[in-house]
Design a protein that fits this description.
The structure is a homotrimer of 153-residue chains. Chain A is an all-alpha fold and 153 residues long. The two termini of chain A are 14 Å apart. Chain A has a domain at 10-31 and 64-148: Membrane associated eicosanoid/glutathione metabolism-like domain (Four Helix Bundle (Hemerythrin (Met), subunit A)), CATH 1.20.120. In chain A, 76% of the residues lie in helices and 0% in strands. Chains in contact: A-B, A-C, B-C. Chain A binds chain B through residues 1-2, 4-5, 67-68, 71, 77-79, 81-82, 85-86, 88-89, 92-94, 121-125, 127-128, 131, 135, 138-139, 142, 145-146, 148-150, 153, and chain B through 2-3, 5-8, 10, 12-14, 16-17, 19-21, 23-24, 26-27, 29-31, 34, 44-45, 47-48, 50-52, 73, 77, 81, 84-85, 88.
């Protein structure tokens, strides 16, 4: 039972790998937003215009590409962060390793496909399906954690 | 002192239960937003309109109900996520179990009441009070963690 | 190898200290937003106007100061939260303590300077530099975690 939250536990190692991947993907959205802000000259701060744009560039001009990347980033914050938090509690609840690793894989795949669906974009319901699958993976872990704490303690 | 972050520690079990509850509540805000986007036909992406709305439906029409749910969701991200992160550090700092469990309960109750205050909505200062109580619970844990690392190491 | 995620591990103690600091800084952005909403009378909810403003105050009037604080808060959520999550996995991967503590210090310093750059504001590229340094610290830890799980298991 000891050291469940450590690399000696295969479930934890897999959790670290897949959550490391999806968190890295989330991290990339920030610089991607900045890149498109620079390329499309879409700035929200006067000091950004002063440094990164030609004099006279307008402020807060909304740009569809920038806003799309930001919505995708926000969706990651709303889903990848709860996955990682609930996942840590889930791993510490010592779940069946095979089932746990499958949940991590399904979640990671669904989030990479969600980003592709959002940024290309692919026709709906691609993005909606990816969202629901990833959401279900997290919800299943949350249910397991809550059940573990109330029924088995 | 070992195994503080595991289900053999009653403080951890309670933390897992209450943070599992508030994270689940946060998770529900996403589909709730989607549901009201569908019901009120408020879409921000062209591909969503194409699939989920009648031809000719306008884009990015802002809707008060959808925006209210989104602000409530955002407030959860700003408060429930820091609670869970600081809470993990706090549990690993081996606090007094009774005090810890009370902090978790107060936080969880304040966030469920915050959501009710925001979505019904209840007259202010209901929502402000819930916010401050939950914020105080997290801040108290953060203070304990920082004090533990500097004064007792 | 045991008890990596505990206060007996100096790397963890330092992680708890620095992530406690940056999470506390993030927490402060919420009440700071509320304070400037009250001072500048910028409310998004009808029930807030009813309670906190003179009768007839307009809704959703956007205010540059409030929006600036909110963007700074959002940037924290996008960077401090992934840092803490990846940091926990990183500490559990048993990194070199000196290098790890330096990464935590660099990240914490970069985020405090980022907030100062954003709120004063300082001329660019101050804020951009702080963002990149903090981002790099988190990315380095993420790389270490993923490498640890695939190459050494």
């Amino acid at each position: 039972m000891s050291d469940l939250l450590g690399f000696s536990n295969e479930t934890f190692t897999n959790f670290a790998f897949y959550s490391g991947l999806v968190l890295s993907k989330t991290l990339i959205m920030g610089p991607l937003t900045s890149m498109f802000r620079g390329r499309n000259k879409v700035f929200v701060n006067p000091e950004d215009v002063k440094r990164f744009a030609a004099p006279g560039t307008a402020l807060t001009a909304s740009d569809p590409t920038v806003e799309r990347i930001r919505r995708c980033h926000q969706n990651d914050l709303e889903n990848v962060v709860p996955f990682t938090l609930i996942g840590l509690l889930y791993v510490s609840a010592d779940p069946d390793p095979d089932r746990a690793i499958n949940i991590f894989r399904i979640f990671a795949a669904s989030r990479f496909l969600h980003t592709a669906s959002y940024l290309l974009p692919l026709p709906q319901p691609s993005r909606a399906t990816c969202f629901i699958v990833g959401w279900g993976a997290t919800a299943a872990m949350a249910f397991f954690v809550i059940a573990r704490t109330t029924f088995f303690k």
